[in-house]
């Protein structure tokens, strides 16, 4: 379950090495065990330089992919997980857990407590999920609330100390590094015996509970006979409980209005102490029927100090909030586009913002544009071959708006108009970006009166809701479009 | 040398970290470990600098103190430093404990004979127990953190030396019940418990009341090492791999705890499980792995203890927790998970593999878990990825691949889809919007379309070929899937010949189900569009892979047309590689013409030479041999460079190979005929050989060089062949013939073998004089007899006779050379010895056991040979 080494590498395209090792940590006692367990198949942990090179090559992050390289491009070198084998100095280091996120590569090598040849299945290696959790923990720590490079540097400089707390010998004690940071500060406080390890101290102050429900709606609309449109709601319930006492008990109930869409695929935070079997078995995999459990969804838990995601859910709402079509016709030298968007009557017509982004990929800059909008205004980014239709805060009374026009393009320049592998030929999309406050598509809400807190003092309870769009695509119905399922 | 300044250390550490190996090889490397230990006690250095020194030692103890004695010294010094710290709050205390532990373990010094180990262990246990060790160990406020650290150190020591804490189980259990940080103690107890169970079951011993509170590992003041197995070989996996778990089961089954022990054990496990919610998720997972594998197969320990935890765990989004549940599933199977439970777990896994709230790496890992799911009743082979039986296609609807997915997600989902298609063939699933095969076809078409994009990144093409490979591997037996795939690929080649290297790679990797039809289509694709476009080099590369004997005329006319445009060296070589492929396939008339034309026409001399060589090979070598001449050598290891490989193929085929003798050669009976002595040889084949050439060399050049003997073919089992070898002596003397055989094996290789030497005896050189007319014999002999002197030599030799007497001796050995015979008493013998000597013998008045022989010769050098010959005659009968 231990890790032999951990790395943090920033990906820097178009530099000599294409990356820099920002942090690395080796665990010699684990290495000692690896040597014994792996026996003849043991491969030692390389120094940072060779590791960086091999990893970037394997992740295809070196700039040069002009030529076919068998060790990377061969059709039989298939990677279906984020776990790699790195050829280093004639040997293969395996398993290397690695992924790229926001320009940073997170990597570690878990200990495998047996020989590596033949390779044991990944599922049997406990260190794999532990390694992932450590890397996710580092990622959360680096990017939670981080806004600029200086903050990132500060956080990076804290990492060695944090890992010394959270993972002193290569076996992770806590993947929540923020908690470890708090632990350092709380270290001088004498803790009572039954203190949970995931809670560094106790809260002192006015009791309050914040609950925030954020729903993201995604959609793929094709306006075609043979392809079904899809849409899905993904909800996240975030809590911050400022309550006194070591282990205050809280129960939050999520409720739905009479015609609300049942919550499915519920995943909860580990601090949730029990889960109703109806919640556990409600899943989008099954065909829906009327008998679906529709709440209230009770989550009893003992909160950690920090803000945390109490649960995630998905839901199948009966209709997408905005239904639209997009038609692009190629006419000699220009494109004729027609867009129609209709807000469903059940949706709250009060947006924080609502925009339609209309990109034109694999074409030159826009040289000429004629258009007509029934509502809102259009912004044109000629060089980027990009239109933004700003719809604003409200749809008109008819709930329906449209845009039509013709666009002419210049010669394509690969530097300025980037290549897109999806939008080939007539394939094109527009993407909706919107946000509605104090609203959820499922109707899900946390009733303040249903929040039960077993702790001293009556807490102030505040609940918020919002709906935001995410991956809301409307595809050109006059050309092929990529299909998603589910 | 005094302590280094803060800056100097910072510089030194930075230099070390850049490349530890380079630093240690440098001038400062040797002193680093020693300096570090001494400067830790320096009062001039700030605590921050000391922390950085300790952190370095945590990471690189092996570089600093490479062997056990050095590690022992280092650990002792670190412990001394710890004792000497002033009693105020210090960040160093915790680090010193970690560093001493690391140094001992990494340096291999941990053991009963190590003084530092014997100091460290009781100290750690004391700290972990929360005992008051005096003000030297910091203020009370630091105790809590030190207690946790001590637990971590003990856990690490126990991991590396299983059984070390066997004696402390009771103490640890007691601590967990009363005070102390829950997580470090729980993990430590779980590990120690597990290791003790394994160690004790291997030793065939019981728990011996180790779980009872009050038992202490320090007996009579010294640590109890009795449970620690000597040597690293007994290191215990904390989570053994699944298939190997059977062994673990056997191992633990040997342990039969008494009812009382079993109750104690159950109580301890229950105690650990009850407080799991106080642990962080990663620690909970570790605890479950440990306990799961500790109790697996242990008698009297029903896994139902875990059941209350499962529902809570199944609901979480935490990767480690769900993974730990899968580990429990693998460990206990049906004993813990009913069929319904299994179905529920599978559904949770399926939904977690696609849940939009989870990140991609998690999805991918869950997908892997799905295909390696530990089923209660698995049908497939162990270790092979397969869709679990309960995973019906309806459940997988959300796991189907789409072009919008990340490449890895696409491949993982595609694999699942392929597995579903494989099942789909057997039973058509109803009620789906689209059949799995339909989705597959659509996806592959999309991938091919994307790969066909001009200027598209190579990753897109690679993805398309990886997907094709995956489909070909999983669905090799399904022409319904393969046919559209093959046509799509051919179309892709038409659109983007620049992908030829990918096609060549794919053809190398896939089986004949996809490879053969694709080969044919690609060949048609290439030869149907002769031209001079930029794609020519790709066409030629492609053709070199797919060209074979069939449809050669089209290929040849394509090559003829292409030849005119092959202006550069590389294009010409590419063209010749196609010719070579055709040669290998057996050549043909058209090819000879083309090669001849190329040998004249190509601009580059290297190209012309190659063409000529190929032409010569084609003209002179028969099909099988040609194949061998051009094929890569099987004996030599393949090298990466095609040049070397090509060269090796030639070398093997065109160079002569050394081989053991394929024939047996012997000298047969003599037959005298003609003007020269002739050696009659018997040749017997031990293996089939062709074009045998025997070469003879006479040692000492006493004969004229011998002609080689040729034989077209020899087969074992056939009667021995006779071979006549005429000798041309320069002196009348016996000789050794050195024999070499050069021949061709049935596989076309030319071999050389050195045969045992052949001996030419003195008598093999004997030739008769022409027969004198009837009655003139005595006169003729007397004339010869007198002509020998005075230049020659005369001698008398006693020739022993065997029991048969003189007559048989003469008739057997000397018959052809007798000039005058008066049997049984006297014979006159005249022998011609080429080149121009004579030997005359008079055998007269034979006695009981011998005959005196008078001999004369005109060559004195012959005398000793003749003497030896005569003396040896009787023995030779």
Automatic annotation (TrEMBL), chain A:
<dbReference type="GO" id="GO:0031902">
    <property type="term" value="C:late endosome membrane"/>
</dbReference>
<dbReference type="InterPro" id="IPR036168">
    <property type="entry name" value="AP2_Mu_C_sf"/>
</dbReference>
<comment type="subunit">
    <text>Probably part of the adaptor protein complex 5 (AP-5) a tetramer composed of AP5B1, AP5M1, AP5S1 and AP5Z1.</text>
</comment>
<keyword id="KW-0458">Lysosome</keyword>
<dbReference type="Pfam" id="PF00928">
    <property type="entry name" value="Adap_comp_sub"/>
</dbReference>
<keyword id="KW-0967">Endosome</keyword>
<dbReference type="GO" id="GO:0016197">
    <property type="term" value="P:endosomal transport"/>
</dbReference>
<dbReference type="InterPro" id="IPR028565">
    <property type="entry name" value="MHD"/>
</dbReference>
<dbReference type="GO" id="GO:0005765">
    <property type="term" value="C:lysosomal membrane"/>
</dbReference>
<keyword id="KW-0653">Protein transport</keyword>
<keyword id="KW-0963">Cytoplasm</keyword>
<feature type="domain" description="MHD">
    <location>
        <begin position="206"/>
        <end position="476"/>
    </location>
</feature>
<dbReference type="InterPro" id="IPR039591">
    <property type="entry name" value="AP5M1"/>
</dbReference>
<dbReference type="GO" id="GO:0015031">
    <property type="term" value="P:protein transport"/>
</dbReference>
<comment type="similarity">
    <text>Belongs to the adaptor complexes medium subunit family.</text>
</comment>
<keyword id="KW-0813">Transport</keyword>
<keyword id="KW-0472">Membrane</keyword>
<protein>
    <recommendedName>
        <fullName>AP-5 complex subunit mu-1</fullName>
    </recommendedName>
</protein>
<dbReference type="GO" id="GO:0005829">
    <property type="term" value="C:cytosol"/>
</dbReference>
<dbReference type="GO" id="GO:0030119">
    <property type="term" value="C:AP-type membrane coat adaptor complex"/>
</dbReference>
UniProtKB/TrEMBL annotation, chain B:
<dbReference type="Pfam" id="PF21587">
    <property type="entry name" value="AP5B1_N"/>
</dbReference>
<dbReference type="InterPro" id="IPR048981">
    <property type="entry name" value="AP5B1_C"/>
</dbReference>
<dbReference type="InterPro" id="IPR038741">
    <property type="entry name" value="AP5B1"/>
</dbReference>
<feature type="domain" description="AP-5 complex subunit beta-1 beta-barrel">
    <location>
        <begin position="689"/>
        <end position="758"/>
    </location>
</feature>
<dbReference type="Pfam" id="PF21589">
    <property type="entry name" value="AP5B1_barrel"/>
</dbReference>
<dbReference type="GO" id="GO:0015031">
    <property type="term" value="P:protein transport"/>
</dbReference>
<dbReference type="GO" id="GO:0030119">
    <property type="term" value="C:AP-type membrane coat adaptor complex"/>
</dbReference>
<keyword id="KW-0653">Protein transport</keyword>
<dbReference type="InterPro" id="IPR048979">
    <property type="entry name" value="AP5B1_middle"/>
</dbReference>
<protein>
    <recommendedName>
        <fullName>AP-5 complex subunit beta-1</fullName>
    </recommendedName>
</protein>
<feature type="domain" description="AP5B1 C-terminal">
    <location>
        <begin position="780"/>
        <end position="872"/>
    </location>
</feature>
<keyword id="KW-0813">Transport</keyword>
<dbReference type="Pfam" id="PF21590">
    <property type="entry name" value="AP5B1_C"/>
</dbReference>
<dbReference type="InterPro" id="IPR048978">
    <property type="entry name" value="AP5B1_N"/>
</dbReference>
<dbReference type="InterPro" id="IPR048980">
    <property type="entry name" value="AP5B1_barrel"/>
</dbReference>
<dbReference type="GO" id="GO:0016197">
    <property type="term" value="P:endosomal transport"/>
</dbReference>
<feature type="domain" description="AP5B1 middle">
    <location>
        <begin position="261"/>
        <end position="626"/>
    </location>
</feature>
<feature type="domain" description="AP-5 complex subunit beta-1 N-terminal">
    <location>
        <begin position="35"/>
        <end position="104"/>
    </location>
</feature>
<dbReference type="GO" id="GO:0005765">
    <property type="term" value="C:lysosomal membrane"/>
</dbReference>
<dbReference type="Pfam" id="PF21588">
    <property type="entry name" value="AP5B1_middle"/>
</dbReference>
């Amino acid at each position: 379950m231990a890790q032999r080494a951990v790395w943090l590498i920033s990906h820097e395209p178009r530099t000599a090495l294409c990356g820099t090792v920002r942090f690395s940590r080796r665990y010699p006692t684990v290495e000692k065990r690896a040597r014994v367990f792996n026996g003849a198949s043991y491969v030692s942990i390389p120094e940072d330089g060779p590791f960086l090179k091999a990893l970037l090559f394997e992740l295809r992050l070196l700039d040069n992919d002009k030529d076919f390289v068998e060790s990377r491009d061969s059709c039989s070198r298939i990677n279906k997980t984020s776990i790699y084998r790195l050829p280093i100095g004639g040997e293969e280091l395996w398993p290397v857990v690695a992924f790229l996120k926001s320009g940073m590569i997170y990597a570690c090598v878990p200990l495998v407590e047996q020989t590596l040849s033949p390779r044991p299945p990944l599922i049997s290696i406990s260190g794999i999920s532990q390694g992932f959790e450590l890397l996710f923990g580092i990622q959360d720590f680096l990017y939670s609330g981080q806004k600029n490079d200086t903050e990132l540097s500060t956080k990076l400089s804290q990492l060695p100390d944090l890992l010394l707390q959270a993972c002193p010998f290569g076996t992770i004690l806590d993947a929540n590094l923020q908690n470890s940071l708090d632990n350092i500060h709380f270290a001088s406080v004498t803790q009572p015996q039954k203190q949970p390890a995931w809670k560094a101290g106790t809260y002192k102050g006015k009791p309050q509970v914040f609950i925030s429900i954020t729903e993201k709606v995604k959609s793929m609309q094709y306006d075609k006979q043979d392809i079904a449109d899809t849409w899905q709601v993904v909800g996240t319930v975030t809590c911050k409980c400022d309550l006194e006492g070591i282990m205050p008990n809280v129960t939050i109930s999520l409720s739905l209005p009479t015609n609300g869409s049942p919550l499915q695929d519920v995943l909860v935070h580990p601090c949730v102490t029990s889960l109703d079997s109806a919640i556990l078995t409600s899943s989008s995999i099954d065909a829906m029927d009327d008998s679906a459990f529709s709440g209230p969804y009770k989550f009893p838990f003992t909160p950690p100090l920090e803000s945390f995601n109490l649960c995630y859910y998905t839901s199948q709402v009966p209709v997408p909030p905005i239904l639209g079509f997009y038609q692009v016709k190629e006419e000699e030298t220009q494109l004729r586009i027609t867009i129609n968007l209709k807000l469903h009557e059940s949706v709250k017509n009060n947006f924080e913002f609502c925009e339609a982004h209309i990109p034109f990929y694999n074409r030159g800059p826009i040289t000429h544009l004629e258009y007509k909008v029934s509502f809102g205004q259009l912004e044109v980014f000629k060089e980027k071959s990009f239109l933004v239709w700003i719809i604003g805060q409200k749809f008109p009374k008819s709930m329906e708006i449209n845009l039509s026009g013709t666009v002419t393009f210049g010669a394509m320049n690969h530097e300025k108009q980037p290549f897109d592998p999806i939008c080939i030929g007539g394939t094109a999309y527009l993407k909706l970006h919107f946000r509605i406050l104090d609203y959820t598509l499922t109707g899900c809400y946390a009733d303040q009166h249903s929040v039960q807190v077993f702790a001293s003092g009556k807490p102030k309870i505040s609940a918020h809701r919002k709906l935001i769009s995410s991956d809301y695509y409307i595809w050109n119905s006059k050309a092929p479009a990529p299909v998603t399922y589910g | 040398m005094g302590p280094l300044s803060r800056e100097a250390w910072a510089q030194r550490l930075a230099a070390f970290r850049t490349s530890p190996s380079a630093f240690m090889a440098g001038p400062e490397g040797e002193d680093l470990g020693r300096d570090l230990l001494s400067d830790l006690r320096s009062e001039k250095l700030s605590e921050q600098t000391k922390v950085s020194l300790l952190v370095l030692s945590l990471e690189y103890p092996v570089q600093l103190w490479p062997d056990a004695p050095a590690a022992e010294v280092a650990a002792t010094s670190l412990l001394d430093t710890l004792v000497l710290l002033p009693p105020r709050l210090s960040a160093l205390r915790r680090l010193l404990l970690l560093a001493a532990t690391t140094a001992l373990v990494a340096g291999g010094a941990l053991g009963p004979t190590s003084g530092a180990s014997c100091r460290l262990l009781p100290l750690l246990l004391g700290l972990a127990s929360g005992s008051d060790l005096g003000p030297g160990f910091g203020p009370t406020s630091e105790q809590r953190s030190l207690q946790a650290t001590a637990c971590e150190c003990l856990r690490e020591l126990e991991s590396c030396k299983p059984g070390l804490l066997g004696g402390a189980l009771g103490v640890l259990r007691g601590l967990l019940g009363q005070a102390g940080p829950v997580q470090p103690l729980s993990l430590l107890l779980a590990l120690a418990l597990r290791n003790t169970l394994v160690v004790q079951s291997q030793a065939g011993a019981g728990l011996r009341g180790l779980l009872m509170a009050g038992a202490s590992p320090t007996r009579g003041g010294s640590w109890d090492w009795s449970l620690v197995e000597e040597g690293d070989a007994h290191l215990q996996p904390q989570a053994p791999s699944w298939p190997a778990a059977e062994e673990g089961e056997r191992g633990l089954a040997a342990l039969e705890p008494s009812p009382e022990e079993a109750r104690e054990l159950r109580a301890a496990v229950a105690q650990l499980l009850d407080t799991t919610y106080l642990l962080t998720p990663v620690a909970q997972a570790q605890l479950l792995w440990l306990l799961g594998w500790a109790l697996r197969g242990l008698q009297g320990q029903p896994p139902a203890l875990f059941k209350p935890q499962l529902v809570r765990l199944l609901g979480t989004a935490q990767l480690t927790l769900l993974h730990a549940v899968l580990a429990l599933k693998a460990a206990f199977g049906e004993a813990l998970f009913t069929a319904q439970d299994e179905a529920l777990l599978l559904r949770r896994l399926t939904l977690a593999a696609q849940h939009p709230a989870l990140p991609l790496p998690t999805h991918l890992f869950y997908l892997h878990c799905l295909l390696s799911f530990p089923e209660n009743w698995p049908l497939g082979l162990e270790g092979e990825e397969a869709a679990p039986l309960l995973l019906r296609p309806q459940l997988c609807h959300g796991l189907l691949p789409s072009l919008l997915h990340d490449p890895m997600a696409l491949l993982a989902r595609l694999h699942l889809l392929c597995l579903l298609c494989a099942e789909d063939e057997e039973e058509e699933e109803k009620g789906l919007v689209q059949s799995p095969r339909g989705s597959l076809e659509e996806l592959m078409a999309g991938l091919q379309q994307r790969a066909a994009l001009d200027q598209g990144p190579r990753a897109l093409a690679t993805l398309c070929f990886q997907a094709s490979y995956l489909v070909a591997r999983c669905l090799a037996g399904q022409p319904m899937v393969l046919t559209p795939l093959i046509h799509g690929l051919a179309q892709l080649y038409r659109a983007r010949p620049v992908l030829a290297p990918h096609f060549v790679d794919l053809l190398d990797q896939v089986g004949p189900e996809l490879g053969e039809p694709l080969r044919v289509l690609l060949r048609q694709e290439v030869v149907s569009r002769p031209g001079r476009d930029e794609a020519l080099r790709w066409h030629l590369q492609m053709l070199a892979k797919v060209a074979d004997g069939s449809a050669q005329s089209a290929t040849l006319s394509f090559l003829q047309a292409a030849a005119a445009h092959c202006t550069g060296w590389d294009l010409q070589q590419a063209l010749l590689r196609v010719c070579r492929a055709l040669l290998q396939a057996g050549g043909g008339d058209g090819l000879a013409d083309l090669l001849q034309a190329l040998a004249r026409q190509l601009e580059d001399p290297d190209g012309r030479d190659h063409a000529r060589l190929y032409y010569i090979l084609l003209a002179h070598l028969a099909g099988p041999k040609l194949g061998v001449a051009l094929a890569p050598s099987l004996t030599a290891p393949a090298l990466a460079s095609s040049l070397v490989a090509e060269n090796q193929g030639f070398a093997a085929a065109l160079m002569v190979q050394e081989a053991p003798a394929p024939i047996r050669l012997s000298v047969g009976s003599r037959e005298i005929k003609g003007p020269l002595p002739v050696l009659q040889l018997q040749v017997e084949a031990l293996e089939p050989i062709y074009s045998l050439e025997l070469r003879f060399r006479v040692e000492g050049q006493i004969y004229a060089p011998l002609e080689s003997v040729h034989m077209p073919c020899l087969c074992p089992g056939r009667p021995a062949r006779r071979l006549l070898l005429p000798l041309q002596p320069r002196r009348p003397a016996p000789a050794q013939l050195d024999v070499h055989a050069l021949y061709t094996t049935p596989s076309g290789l030319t071999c050389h073998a050195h045969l045992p030497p052949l001996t030419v005896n003195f008598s093999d050189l004997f030739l008769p004089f022409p027969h004198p007319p009837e009655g003139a014999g005595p006169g003729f002999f007397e004339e010869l007899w007198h002509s020998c002197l005075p230049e020659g030599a005369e001698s008398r030799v006693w020739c022993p006779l065997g029991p048969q007497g003189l007559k048989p001796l003469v008739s057997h050995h000397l018959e052809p050379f007798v000039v005058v015979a008066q049997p049984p008493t006297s014979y006159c013998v005249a022998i011609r010895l080429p080149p121009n000597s004579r030997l005359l013998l008079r055998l007269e008045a034979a006695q009981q056991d011998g005959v005196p022989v008078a001999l004369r010769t005109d060559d004195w050098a012959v005398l000793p040979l003749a003497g030896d010959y005569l003396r040896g005659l009787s023995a030779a009968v």
